[in-house]
Design goal:
Helix content is 43%, strand content 17%. The protein contains 10 helices and 11 strands. It has a 6-stranded mixed beta sheet, with helices on both faces. Strands 7-9-10 form a 3-stranded mixed beta sheet. It has a two-stranded antiparallel sheet with strand order 4-5.
Amino acid sequence: MPDEVQYEVSDGVAVLTINRPAARNAVDLATTHQLAAAVDDAEARDDVAVLVLTGAGGTFCSGMDLKAVARGEEPALPGRGFAGVTEAPPSKPLIAAVEGWALAGGFELVLACDLVVAARDARFGIPEVKRSLVAAGGGVLRLPKTLPYQRAMELALTGDPMGAEEAHRFGLVNALTEPGGALTGARALAARIAVNGPLAIRATKQLVAGAVRWTDRELLDHQVGVTRPVFDSADAREGAVAFAEKRTPVWRGV
């Protein structure tokens, strides 16, 4: 695979690494295509039972690459969502190995995963509301299915981050590791899964995910009508400009 995504398979586990550390692993369109291709390859291989998604250089993913967006790119694929994953996760179990920040679309990637292993100092957040945007890559839909309603609402409405220790207490994170150990921890968890029957693994994931997330496709379609006026608003443009100019945005509600 090209450098934006590193891809390796061993002992029944495929590890997909977003490899843009200089950009805090922000996702552009090239990364989206490469990540989707790696997921498809892992899905098709009989020697892969579990996928692990991580980021290089001490950051999981900081969301979409705003410089790429300014060039006119949209780091999403039709029917597959942000990074080619958030709307169409693989049928095989997907584990997030989180170091550092999982922010905006990066947190939405985590929420699209089935299991999460995180370093104790990892941080999660959907700060889109601070720029008059909405975490429409599945974030606001999946978060209240993972956290208690009031805590999910607080994170979504304030845009403030949550630490890995709290995320673990609420069950969003399966296992905590020391900093630098998330991938090793995720590999260990993946190994415990990969020894089991491959047909049973996929069927079990389908049923567990279906019991909790069966409305996600309907909700993803519904949210387009709710969020489109927000993304098209003057406030959304003001949020981006204020961020670039390093100033406090001035909202007009239009």
